[in-house]
Amino acid sequence: MIKIEEILQLKIKPKEKQTKLVETVVSKKISAKEFIAFFESASDVDKGTCADVMKHVSAKSPAILMPYIDVLVKYINYKAPRVKWGVPEAIGNMAKDYPDKTAKAIPHLLENTTDDIINTTVIKWCAAFAFSEIAKHNPKTRKQLRPIFEKIIKGEKNNGVKNVYVKAIKTIEKQ
Fold it and tell me: What's this model's pTM, rounded to 2 decimal places?
């Protein structure tokens, strides 16, 4: 049985390690339970890699990570930037299939929308992605999220981040 540590120690490029981990988790050669346990105990560098892997796993097969939504929510605001990127994207990818379960991430995602030193453009974009996916797929959250989106649009300096919210509002209005 291949181990996560073995993949991370391979003498290959980081993207190749990530791809190998995604394939291994999606094919269930490594269980999601084992992967999440490793993620929680890993160094910040490995946590970042795992968060990136989660983003891709959730895009291919959201059901694999769904039992661990509470763990993902817990790490939305983790200090390592790569974790703050990958985890919200994983939640966003899960929102279509699990709109009610992913809604619990809303209060945590809010922390990643403020303009400060910690919340880089990438972090704010990833939060915007998760928010917009939750709003698009969960009608119950739209009333709560729309005013938040509008407030962010008014204050956001980065057009890429702003456009995620603008697009989400347009999509919601069509539904």
Answer: 0.94
